[in-house]
Amino acid sequence: MWRDRLARAIVAQTSDVGCFMIMRLACQASVAVFLCLVSALALSGTAKLTYEEQVIVLNGQKQTAHVPKGYRLKLLTSALDAPRLLTFATNGDLFIGSKSGHVYRLPPPYTRPEVLVTLSDYPHSVAFRGNEILIARTNGLYRAPYQSGQATLAHEAITLLAPLPGGAGHNSRTVNIGPDGRVYVALGISRNCSEQYLGEPNSFDDRRGGILVLREEGGKTGWETFGSGLRNPVGFAWHPTTKAMYASNNGPDHLGYDQPPEYFSHIAPGSFHGMPWFQYDGRRIQRDDCAKSPPPQPMQDVAPPVTTFPARNAPMAVAFVPVGTMDKTLESDAIVALHGSWGTQPSGGFLGAAASRRPPKLVAVRFMNGAAQRVDDLVTGFQMSDGTRWARPVGVAFGPDGALYFTSDSDTHGLFRLRRIAR
Q1: Distance in angstroms (rounded) separating the CA atoms of residues 319 and 238
Q2: Per-chain mean pLDDT for the chain
Q3: How far, in Å, CA of 107 to CA of 104, rounded?
Q4: Are 406 and 423 contacting, i.e. CB atoms less than 8 angstroms apart?
Q5: What is the DSSP pairing of strand 83-88 with strand 71-77?
Q6: What per-residue string of b and e applies to 381-391 under the rule 16 or more CB within 10 Å gives b?
Q7: Residues ≥6 apart with Cβ < 8 Å to 107
Q8: Nearest to 289 by CA among 297, 305, 278
Q9: Model-level pTM?
Q10: What pLDDT digit, counting tens, does each position of 231-267 carry?
Q11: What is the pLDDT of residues 81-97, one digit of tens each?
């Protein structure tokens, strides 16, 4: 019967035997066919979100955020100085790197930051591996012994694990531990057209613009190129089912307000993403003549992004939605922090109206069957109609309580939580 075939098609999308049995019974009546299809679409990650306004009070001022229905946004603390990326330890403590030099530790409920250690050279992010903490700074990846719940970290305990190319311009470094247990670090090129590349013939200091993976053999360390040709990949994470790596990427500023779009890319081992020699314009890869040297790889080898954000949005951290945290339709989607632009219309420079800047927001890259489909807004409203802002998201991570936590490093220097209240 056609109803049975329809039910089997739906279960192929949902992979949920219980849902299959319910929908098969419902589909006995033709009037229920539409409801079955809607349910299947929702569970497969294609359903649109609906939103509601929420008033949030910051420093005595009421601001309006737009959040998904059934969620509440809360500022947990504004006692942070230029916070950047955040990481949860296995015991539930939250750690935040910063541009101010502080590495913060926040035990639950994450309202009272403590300074774990203060360092020079921009401790942008941290990760944990066994009984050690890894700290990514501009000129290197550092390590120190660390025990769960430890409140401070002595400077003399911190040692260099592996040097990184340093220098000014896009000097953040993001460290993550992969599903394979290896250590990965992202770093950007210094400027729009800096002819830096993660490979030959560049010297060590000019090997920038992509994602590295640490090689550790016989007590020695070294970096291998995992993905290259990315101007500034601040955030990256792995899809929870496919284990494929995806990264956000900040495109250049020299092509105006609308070009090129910002990338969200699948980073396959050895992949080349083109920058600064090539740009994706939303339809095809094109040569960018701001880079005068011969490209290290040909145009046909450039991997286009799997989806994009409007130009000048400055995408930051990436976190995939774990099972059982947000709405089921969002499971395995990627949450990305968009920092918003400094560039204004029409030219992309500083001189236009502040209201024309790209607004900061949180977005969801929607996935289905392990592939990116589109980008939906998650939380908006950080920029008001006159262009003033009350927050700019940077770091995103899911806590042990299933809530989404994110930092803001401008206007409000703080930590926010987005929590589901309706189930």
Answers
A1: 8
A2: 91
A3: 10
A4: no
A5: unpaired
A6: bbbeeeeebbb
A7: 92, 93, 94, 114, 149
A8: 278
A9: 0.89
A10: 999 999 999 999 999 999 999 999 999 999 999 999 9
A11: 999 999 999 999 999 99
Distance, CA of 409 to CA of 348 (rounded, Å): 22
For the record, the structure tokens of 137 come out as 């700074």
User: CA-based angle 413:192:371, to the nearest 5?
Assistant: 75
Say how far apart CA 345 and CA 358 lie, in whole Å: 9
Task: Quote the tokens at residue 239.
Answer: 């899809």
Q: Which two tokens stand for residue 278?
A: 């090539």
Omega before residue 346 within 30° of 0, cis: yes
φ and ψ at residue 8, rounded to 5 degrees:
-65, -35
The two three-digit tokens of residue 366, written as one number? 């929607």
Q: What are the distances in angstroms from CA 402 to CA 56, 179, 207, 378, 398?
A: 21, 20, 38, 16, 6
Q: Specify the residue for token string 């430890």.
A: 150
Distances from the Cα of 275 to the Cαs of 174, 298, 340, in angstroms?
19, 12, 21
* Backbone region of residue 44 per phi and psi (left: phi > 0; alpha: psi in -120 to 50; beta: other values): alpha
Write down the residue that tokens 């910002």 correspond to: 262
Residues written for the chain:
423
